[in-house]
Design brief:
Elements: H1 7-55, H2 61-68, H3 74-79
């Protein structure tokens, strides 16, 4: 059988649980913001790597853009 609780004990447990939830929500929000920041930094690094690769490439801007967009020019490939 369930143990009987008096109203005061129940109120204390409710308050304690609400405080724990609040702390966890604050930690969740803080960690979510940190994760978002880390994703932004990663994206910036990836973008920088792509720009360096493009700058060092012998391909033209149009060739690179076509490749990225998934456009293929079979006529120019057949000539090679």
């Amino acid at each position: 059988m369930a143990r009987n609780m008096n109203r005061e004990t129940l109120e204390q447990k409710i308050t304690k649980t609400e405080k724990a939830i609040s702390r966890n929500r604050e930690q969740y929000d803080r960690l979510t913001a940190e994760l978002e920041d880390l994703h932004k930094k990663k994206k910036a690094i990836l973008n920088e790597e792509i720009l360096k690769a493009i700058a060092g490439s012998e391909k033209s801007y149009e060739e690179i853009l076509s490749f990225i967009q998934g456009k293929t020019d079979t006529a120019s490939r057949e000539e090679e």
